[in-house]
Amino acid sequence: MKDIRIALLDMNNNHVNQGFRNIKEISEAFRQNSEEHVDIKTFDVRFKNEIPEIGDFDIFISSGGPGTPHREGFEWEGKFADFLDTIFEYNKNNKDKKYLFLICHSFQLASIHWKLGNICKRKSYSFGVMPVHKTEEGTNEFLFANLQDPFYAVDSRAYQFIEPDHDRFEKLGMKITAIEKFRPHINLERAVMAIRFSDEIFGTQFHPEASPQALIENLKDDKNREAMIENFGMEKYLETMDRIDDEDKIILTRNQILPKFLQFAKKNILKEIESLV
Question: How far is CA 29 from the centre of its chain?
Fold first, then answer.
């Protein structure tokens, strides 16, 4: 029986983080529910310069993290850029594929690396449960299939991806699948919230791994709570706290996107193995 090998890339730079804990929980649930043997290994990319060998794993999930997504001259930055290119090129040239999911900080790093648009600092820190709108391509995105439009997700970011280079997207065969809420009364461009980078590589600016418990934990942080109240006002903050465990909001998003990505990857990995037997 084929082993499914998962690498979790921790991009938190030694900061305690609820998101990475949630990624591990979802991966562990996938392991427990699989008939196949699933091996999960963690790599501390930014703090320890650890990067997985592409050939040793089938599935990669790269987390969010603090700080600027722009280059600062650290050794890990070059390694991560090479990692992205290696997976992208590997999938072009091999029948067996490598599957990669990029979250928040990792999503920004990839978008900068592939020169897809303007990744810049927001006017203020964004934190909270946000409506995320599907694009036309997003309505056909299988990872969003059981989600409403808009669907709800946890947002936590100081940076944003705006002004996408549509020619570059077309050249690389990439598609924008989600954008942030349209606010006609505010003269700001809507940020890109999800990208289908390739058949095997997907990324979100939001946190599909977030759970109600993690969000409540994060709101104990004054910066997060103040950002949420500043963005939405006290009434909306209280409404969000009331809706935090609604089955059709972040719980649904958590139960759909990453688990579906893992199942899709597993199905294709096993199919490829069977075709070789």
Answer: 18
Three-point CA angle 241, 126, 220, nearest 5°: 45
CA-to-CA separations, 204 to 157, 208, 243, in angstroms, rounded: 12, 8, 22
Structure tokens at 9: 């890339």
Rg over CA atoms, the chain: 18
Using CA atoms, how far residue 98 sits from 57, 90, 93, 171, 272, in Å, is 8, 8, 11, 21, 12
What pLDDT score does 244 carry? 82
Residues of the chain with pLDDT under 50: none
pLDDT of the residue at 188: 63
The pLDDT assigned to 230 comes to: 83
- Nearest Cα neighbor of 118 from 62, 168, 64, 81 is 168
H/E run at residue 262: helix 250-276
For 103, list phi and psi in degrees, rounded to 5. -120, 130
**Which stretches does DSSP call E strand in the chain?**
4-10, 38-44, 59-62, 99-103, 118-134, 151-162, 175-180, 192-196, 201-204
